[in-house]
């Protein structure tokens, strides 16, 4: 059984989306996912795939580390 060590990924998708004056649906269309995916990602309830993280960062023309951050959990 896998041990849950509590690591997570935080993101600034909401901040970047609002600054770009995009709806969740508009961003979803641009990166090829559903509006629901953007919604749960912004709420911190979904960790995107590496591919999706890169699509989002490329769309906003910033480094992936500007939007997504690794948060180390408890060992």
Task: Provide a short characterization of the protein structure.
Helix content is 49%, strand content 11%. It has 75 residues and is mainly alpha-helical.
How would you portray this structure in words?
There is one protein chain. The chain has 75 residues and is mostly helical. The chain has a domain at 13-64: 434 Repressor (Amino-terminal Domain). The chain is 49% helix and 11% strand. It is built from 5 helices and 2 strands; from the N terminus they run βαααααβ. The protein has helices at residues 13-19, 24-31, 35-42, 50-59, 64-67, and strands spanning 8-11, 68-71. The protein has a two-stranded antiparallel ribbon with strand order 1-2. Helix 2 crosses helix 3. The model has no long low-confidence stretch (mean pLDDT 93). One of its GO terms (molecular function) is DNA binding. Residues 13-67 form the HTH cro/C1-type domain. This is Cro/Cl family transcriptional regulator. It holds the Pfam family HTH_3. Keywords: DNA-binding.
């Amino acid at each position: 059984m896998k041990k849950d060590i509590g690591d997570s990924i935080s993101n600034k998708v909401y901040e970047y989306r609002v600054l770009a004056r995009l709806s969740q649906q508009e961003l979803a269309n641009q990166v090829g996912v559903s509006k629901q995916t953007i919604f749960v990602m912004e709420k911190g309830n979904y960790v995107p795939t590496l591919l999706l993280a890169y699509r989002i960062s490329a769309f906003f023309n910033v480094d992936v580390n500007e939007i997504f951050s690794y948060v180390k959990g408890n060992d």
